[in-house]
Structure formats: C-alpha cells, structure tokens
C-alpha cells in the first residue's frame, strides 16, 4: 500500500482551491499566504504522482483526475470533521454536529425557529440541514447520513420510528389580489379548469394529494411544476396560478400570498420526527430532537 506522505492541511488546501477556483480566495479562506497554499498543493500532487489542478492566469480548474479525487477528498475531510466534533465535548453539549433531514416546507418555515432556540442553549453545537423530498429524507435517515428527520407519515418502515408531532391541512395558496382570496373555503372539484402550480410527481406531497382526491370526477390540471415548495410559491407569487400547499408553507403574515382551506374532502398530512430504531441518538442530536418536538407542538 502506498505510504500517505501528505498532511491534512495539504488536502484542505486542494479542496478549498478546487471549490473556489482561485488561489487568492482559497488562501483567504484558509488564512494563509498564496505561496504557502501553492506549496501544499504541489506537495500533494507530488505525493499522488498526478496533476490535480490546471492553472491559468484567470482561473484554476480541476483536471479529470482532480475532479475524481475532489469527491474522495471531500468525503475524507467530512469524516474527519465529524469525528472530531462528535468525539469532542458532545456529551456535555459544548460541541457537536447534528444532521437533520427535512422536507422543504418544514426546513423553510419551521426549522429555523427551532434551531434558533436550540442554538441559544447550545451555541457550540453545529447543525446541518438536508432539505429534500420526503423519499430522500427517509433514505437519508435509513442510511445514517442524517441523525434524524422531519417528514410526513406515509409508507411505514419497520426500522424507522415515527413520532407524530403535528397534523396540518392542505390549503389553496394564491396571491392576495386573486379573485378567490376572500372566500372562506374552496371545494377540490372547483379547481378543475383553473391554472394550477404543483410540486413535481417525485414529491411525497403530490402523491398524497393525488391519492386523496382520486375518487373525484373533476380534478385539477397542473400547468406549472417545480421541484420544491419554494419554487412553487415563487410561481404563484408571479401570478401564474394557484397551488395546493400544506398549511405550514404559507405564513399568515406573507405580504403577497394567502391560503384558504380546501374542502370536500379535507386532506391532512401528519408531520413526524423519524429516526432509526437501532441507533440511539447522540446527546446533541437527542437535545435537538426534543427541542423540535416541543417547539413544533406549540407552533
């Protein structure tokens, strides 16, 4: 096996330069001089026997080998970084790293407040949020990439523990100047023929809604799609149509959008904290888990 004859700082120098595309910016990020940065990268390239970066007068780009090595270098640094933080003072919540996977609506409208409360109590603990679709959130928790997740309850996994923390009803989001904005409620069948915006078919929200209204004779037709809730609301705000959104997605004080209840039928989703049954949470993760439970129950 080839001897590893380079330092951690050399690996960090390469990753920073590859990501910034600039020796100057990478040196500033690492708080070292450009000559020192160059020496670290040259040492790494010499040890590996391969050129990792192509240098031009205007920009630095990774070579083919460099691009492949970059992913592995990032992964190695992440592993070391996580190990250092987890083995530090996590038991006393002085330091630590917690990774939370969350569906976009929760990550956008609820998690920031809960994390703010958590950070005020444990300022030394870092929090990483993975905001993705429901299926990706579940996969992230199953794989161990995330300590736990915030998802809505759908297909049950025997290896996953679900803690239901809030039920919310789907509503119809629209601009405040829309002709329907003064209505008390809207029936699902009334959406037929209206211009509608929706999350993509890969979204758990989309699947849940379509299953819930499959029995209706007249159903809405989707004109515009976006992958996440943020994109959907941007299209609604631009006046391109209305959208069926979970109640959390449209705050009551939104300056340009409002949401009204959908009826006949009333469709709910249940938000839940999810975690692996076979993996106890580390102290920092457990503390954030409980903070989210309490804050969301009172939201």
TrEMBL record:
Q: Name one GO molecular function term.
A: DNA-binding transcription factor activity
Question: What InterPro entries does its record include?
Answer: HTH-type_LysR_regulators, LysR_HTH_N, LysR_subst-bd, WH-like_DNA-bd_sf, WH_DNA-bd_sf
Q: Does the keyword Transcription regulation apply?
A: yes
Task: Specify whether Thylakoid is a keyword of the entry.
Answer: no
Any GO CC annotation of this UniProt entry: cytosol
Query: HTH lysR-type domain location, by residue?
Result: 8-63
Keywords from the UniProt entry: DNA-binding, Transcription, Transcription regulation
Protein's UniProt name: LysR family transcriptional regulator
